[in-house]
Amino acid sequence: MGIACEDIVATRDWVIRSHDVQRESGVIWDELQQANLCLLEVGGIALELVAGPVVAGLLRRGQLLYHVCYEVPELEITLAELVGDACRIVSPPKPAVLFDGRRVAFVLGPTGLTELLEQRCGSQ
User: What are the residue boundaries of the structural domains of the chain, listed by start?
Assistant: First the structure.
């Protein structure tokens, strides 16, 4: 679940203080996404904190929930299926630093913004 935040370090620190965080990536700058990112695993759910120009408009409107993310086995096939079913690509596939170079893409559809994360090779 992607969470927009103005101060990623303060938000990260709050999540760590108030939740049982199992894993944390640290704050990472992703040049291609133009965002500071931090991945925190809380109770089996991954919270992706996102800060920077990409979420500035959301923050101005007071919207913190940014996107949901799904890991998919075939990124291009999934994109084609979603585009054929009322979604449009708002960010084409590109490598993501936060996910060890696995590609991500974003689509906008009837339920909002969805990030698609390319599954690791050999994963089920």
Answer: 2-118
Q: How high is the pLDDT of residue 123?
A: 59
2-118: CATH, from 3.30.750.24, 3.10.180.10, 3.40.50.1100, 3.90.1200.10: 3.10.180.10
pLDDT reported for residue 89:
97
User: b vs e for 87-124, b when ≥16 Cβ sit within 10 Å of the residue's Cβ?
Assistant: beeebebeebbbbeebebbbbbeeeebbbbbbeeeeee
Q: What is the pTM of this model?
A: 0.87
Q: Which residues contact 10 (CB under 8 A, 6 or more apart)?
A: none
